[in-house]
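[#protein-structures] MJ: dropping IS110 family transposase here for a structure pass
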Amino acid sequence: MGVFAALDVSQEETAICMVSQDGTILAEAKVPTCPDRIAAWLTARAGDLERVGMETGPLAVWLWNALTARQVPIICIDARHANGVLKMMPNKTDRHDARGLAQIVRTGWFKAVQIKSHEAYVNRAMLTARETLVGMRVKLENEIRGLLKTFGVMFGKRVGGFKRRAEEIISKELAIAPDLVPIFEALLHARRDVLARIAALDSRIRAIARRHATVRLLMTAPGVGPITAMAVVAAFDDAARFRRSSSAGAYLGLTPKRYESGEISRNGRVSKRGDGFTRRCLFEAANAIFCRKLGGSRLRNWAKTIADRTGPRKAKVALARKLAVMLHAMWRTNTPFQEEAAMA
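AK: finished. structure tokens for IS110 family transposase:
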């Protein structure tokens, strides 16, 4: 008779519940969140573990890899699916969550989440770090503009870029208030350092793109640069995970939600499930194709036809979905971009 277990993971301790095939609770405990301690507790109480489940979360990737290396049959459960069951319990505790997860694992009523390769997580971490630094740069620039308005100085737009205009303001328009100069110089120095770090990451991303055959392949598509290509590769990780390329759009949350009940049947907005960063990258690529002549004239004409019916924003979302499907098909077949095949 098979034995099932579940882990409710937190930073310090992990609640474990073990149940039999008929749902009877066999053992429960709280152990430190350490792969060795968790694996030792499980193997000491059941030699025929069939499945061990845990929810997706910040520690899920680390624990899955560590427990898999220790021969524990661990699976990762989509937290959204688990939440639908666990919220039915009147009291939320780690112990109750572990019990509920154990019953989900026993019945098989869950959606397993694929843990990606180490390379995919490293590349995604690099892209996330760059996105964070870009956000910091934008925040610093907006802060400089906003503070200057307090003193009646309009930053505006000047030929030569942000740095040249800022230096002009410090040397001329703030000359009458020298006590403000150190404040704005500190913000400009911080912006300069952030830009240097962004440039370093951009150089690293370009170097990886030159070495990575799949990234180079995806970059043959119009509007797709190294960042978008790396984001798609990191999000999918393995082209074989989807049996059909059309599933790629739904995986990235670019397909409409569907609601049907009785006589009611309607489509909603796109679900926005999955990897938000990759979805934004594809939307930016679609926007570049739609607004600029970057190649892919048939893709642009197709999107323009949709825009005439539903508006440009929905057309760009549709084009982003088409790009996701097209990039996955290119990867799966190892074929560079061919516009005729893309529009087939």
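MJ: nice. The chain is about 60% helix and 15% strand.
AK: one more thing. The two ends are 52 Å apart (CA to CA).
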